[in-house]
Amino acid sequence: MFTLIHYPFCPFSRKVRIALSEIGIEAEMKSVEPWNLPVEFRTNINPTGEVPVLFDPIGKYICGHYPIVEFLYETTSCSASIIGTESFDRAEVRRLCDLFDRNFYDNITKLIFIEKIYKPLNGNSASNINTQAIRAATTNLKNYLLYIESLLNNRHWLAGENITMADISAGAQISILDYLGHIPWYAKDLTPNFPELKNWYQRLKSRPSFKSILLDKLPIRKPSSTYANLDF
To answer: 193 to each of 1, 99, 121, 166, how far by Cα in Å?
Structure first.
């Protein structure tokens, strides 16, 4: 059996957890805090000190979400559809994965994670929270959500008619923000701000692969009211 070293509120760890489930691979989950890793982790496993890391049944390991997903694609026949079946489809899936794994993460998730999760977990008081970073992330978020909405106006899933790693990558990022209550699902009059996005995310988190994600809890903060609600 595979073993995945992960942090529950790392979007890249979530991405791999969801992908494993979608493909149908069972894995033992070993949760760690990336900022409290033993020295042996950097010395013997991953010198960057980053998760996720996947151990395969014969004892070899793959570090990083990109190599893990490519490894699964190359070694698991039933995984072909989640990366795209044609060359153009695969290019579009990879483009969107890059958008969410790099730009979305750097400009939104990372900023909010540091202020709302990392700092409180490490004893920082509310007075040490960088509100400017949160405001910048919130502004960036609205632009990305509008872009997702535009994609879904013409597609059932982000990269086409079938669920792919593009949806998994986006869902992993959005799920962190949804836990923290940072997705503006509704306007003041209770109409959906992004109806296509909302419908897409409902479909995504209703899948069995999302079940364990929705059970994750932070010791410092309860999830938002929409987080585990499949009909929010």
So the answer is: 43, 22, 32, 22
* Residue pLDDT, tens place only, 203-213: 999 999 999 99
Cβ burial 121-149 (10 Å sphere, 16+ → b, else e): beeeeeeeeeeeebeebeebbeebbeebb
What is the reported pTM? 0.95
Neighbours of 111 (CB within 10 A): 21
